Amino acid sequence: MQSYSRRWFLGAGATTLISAAGLTACGSGSGSGGSGGTITAMVYGDDAVKVQDKAASRFNASAEAKKANAKVKMERIPASDYPAKLRTAMGSPNAPDIFFNWGGGSIKAYKEAGQLVDLTDVIKSDEVLSTGFLPSVVAAGSLDGHEYGIPMRGMQPVLLFYNKSVFAEHKLTPPTTWDQLLDNVAKLKKAGVTPFALGGVEIWPELMWLEYLVDRIGGPQVFDKIRNGDASGWGDPAVLKAAQTVKQLVDEGAFGKGFSSVSYNNGGAPALLAKGKAGMHLMGSWEYSTQLGKFPDFAKKDLGWCAFPSFEGGAGDIRNVVGNPCNYWSVNARTGNKDGAIAFLRDCASEAYTKDLIDNGDVPTTTIAENMLDSSPNPEFAKFQYQLVQKAPNFTLSWDQAVDPDWQQPMLTEINKLFVGKSSPEQFVSALKGLK
Prior knowledge:
Elements: H1 4-17, E1 38-45, H2 49-60, H3 63-67, E2 71-78, H4 82-90, E3 98-101, H5 108-112, H6 120-125, H7 127-131, H8 135-140, E4 150-151, E5 156-163, H9 164-169, H10 178-190, E6 194-197, H11 204-218, H12 220-227, H13 237-251, H14 268-274, E7 278-284, H15 287-294, H16 296-301, E8 303-306, E9 321-324, E10 328-331, H17 338-346, H18 351-359, H19 379-391, E11 395-397, H20 399-402, H21 405-419, H22 425-433
Parallel strand pairs: 1-2, 1-3, 6-7, 9-11
Antiparallel strand pairs: 3-10, 4-10, 5-7, 5-8, 5-9
């Protein structure tokens, strides 16, 4: 399983990666990093890269590689160096043919510089690529309705985790509606238990609350307008209602009094849940592996999970999901072997690739994965995630990875000000509407 630190690198990585604004395409049609039949694949060099290494070896020995006169060469970049090295490479004559990314806003600058192959028609006309992945995940990595990426790692939806022992002791049930959630908050507070653990030091855990509330109240179209660059979208009534709901939670003590000094990255927030000091925790699916590493007995016996509840009168579907849908391979428009690159990307939908992801503790986004999840480290948890995403009409990419790069830090700053009471919901909306 990937640990919580991976989410930190996802957020931090995307921050640096999308700061590639101002890139210009140099050269064209002459191939990129490789020479002859070599396809260079630049990849984020964490522990999971062994899955991509095996894929390259498998492809290089295949008939497809011979037919396309292609050999894939992995270029592994240390995790913390990846975004900056990619940005530099994409502005040089030695740019990779394909590269790992976070989809959405993380590739916006490359798209605007004309450096990406639009894969929309390629996917539509290719039987393997068009049927190989969960539709909500493919769509989540798109820009302006066009596909620029092929899913190549596991899904990371945001879930509502809870402490089973605390729930049993206080006769609570996992909430399916907002009223039930508020009822749980009131009962936990009365019992002297912090309703929700929240790592306010990092800010991105606060972001998850607004992501889900805006979706449940206004539907996915509200954020779609924002992520496509229209700042007026922040003025949608759903954003104000979500901000008001957050203020209500904070004022009622749903996160305790000291959440702004609690850290997720150092394990503070997970510890509150594991030790029964908090009843619930809204967090990405990596919370399971975090708890397994730090509090294994709790993870195996008392860690529960459920979907984010519905919001009465809201336009959003309770089946919608937010989080990190996946990581993606994108193809450089300057590749000298587009057919070979596409042939390699097909392997991401294969049974062998899916099995390698599962063996690594990931939950793949391939359509064949569900019947293979019995071999995962925790089949029950893996199947819950998979079915959640499989049934989701919409999977919204984390806002800090989806928005315009110039908006990212100001947005996070305003979210934190809202949570700590330094701005009102109205001031929050006004500040975000003013983003340029």
